[in-house]
């Protein structure tokens, strides 16, 4: 039986990834800091990616065939408040995992998940936040370790992931607020810029994309994991209000039209991946998840 090691397993995407590989019959090892995943047949292993020796011991014992690295500090706003933790988690944690893999499972296929909003020195002259910097360094580090040590590393740059499950993403936050308002809460929801456009992809489609990259992707290649379409936050909020039957008031600090950014996903389509869950279905599933929670 093939083994997969998933870091960040208790996170939004990690939980879905564990379910996905468990359903495929993999021996799933879920790396967690404190809590365990309540999923049958998933093996919870506790550890901290900042503890290099502990991670090396874990990989030496498990010897996985696939490594899916999802652990990260993913909040750009939080990265301003605590840049050291952001850099340590996203950069040092990744280096420790790659170093452990180099010494214990050098032939394993490894997927490092980055972000489409990471800093790109070829396209931008200014850094937006420490988070973007940390993800840029993570990508550079991963490509370098792949070249230096002949590790089979692939990189996924991912857009905004949505869908059922606990998440701090904007769609989940608005959905929760809609339901709270319907139950008597009097507070509305304020956006920074309600006309901001974003690319949203269902987390279940993203996990399938990650598996396609691990199974069929090319070593040291970078893949964009996105829907290829953008929607304003206003459009999304209106749909969530409709689905939740809520009159939640929406306010915004500014009305600023932003240019849509279309992420090219051609490389993924060459791997026979395609989006299967449309935006409206994802939003419907989010509302139903919180209604049942």
UniProtKB/TrEMBL annotation:
Residues 4-226 form the NAD-dependent epimerase/dehydratase domain. Pfam families: Epimerase. It comes from the Bacteria. SUPFAM superfamilies: NAD(P)-binding Rossmann-fold domains. Belongs to the NAD(P)-dependent epimerase/dehydratase family. PANTHER family: DTDP-D-GLUCOSE 4,6-DEHYDRATASE-RELATED. This is NAD-dependent epimerase/dehydratase family protein. It comes from Rossellomorea vietnamensis.
């Amino acid at each position: 039986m093939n083994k997969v090691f998933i870091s960040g397993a208790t996170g939004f995407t990690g939980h879905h990834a564990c379910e996905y590989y468990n359903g495929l019959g993999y021996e799933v090892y879920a790396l967690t800091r404190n809590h365990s995943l309540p999923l049958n047949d998933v093996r919870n292993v506790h550890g901290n990616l900042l503890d290099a020796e502990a991670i090396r011991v874990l990989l030496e014992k498990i010897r996985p065939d696939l490594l899916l690295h999802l652990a990260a500090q993913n909040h750009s706003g939080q990265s301003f408040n605590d840049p050291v933790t952001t850099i340590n988690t996203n950069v040092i944690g990744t280096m420790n995992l790659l170093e452990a893999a180099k010494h214990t499972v050098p032939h394993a296929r490894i997927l490092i998940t980055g972000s489409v909003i990471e800093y790109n020195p070829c396209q931008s002259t200014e850094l937006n936040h420490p988070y973007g910097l940390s993800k840029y360094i993570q990508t550079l580090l991963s490509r370098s370790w792949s070249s230096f040590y002949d590790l089979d590393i692939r990189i996924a740059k991912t857009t905004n992931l949505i869908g059922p499950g606990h998440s701090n993403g904007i769609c989940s936050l608005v959905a929760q607020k809609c339901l709270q308002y319907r139950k008597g809460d009097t507070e509305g929801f304020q956006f920074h810029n309600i006309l901001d456009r974003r690319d949203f992809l269902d987390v279940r489609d993203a996990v399938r994309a990650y598996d396609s990259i691990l199974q069929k992707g090319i070593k040291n290649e970078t893949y964009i994991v996105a829907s290829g379409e953008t929607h304003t936050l206003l459009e999304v909020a209106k749909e969530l209000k409709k689905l939740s039957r809520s009159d939640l008031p929406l306010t915004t600090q500014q009305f600023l039209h932003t240019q849509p950014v279309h992420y090219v996903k051609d490389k993924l389509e060459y791997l026979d991946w395609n989006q299967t869950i449309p935006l409206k279905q994802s939003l419907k599933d989010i509302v139903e998840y919180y209604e049942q929670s």
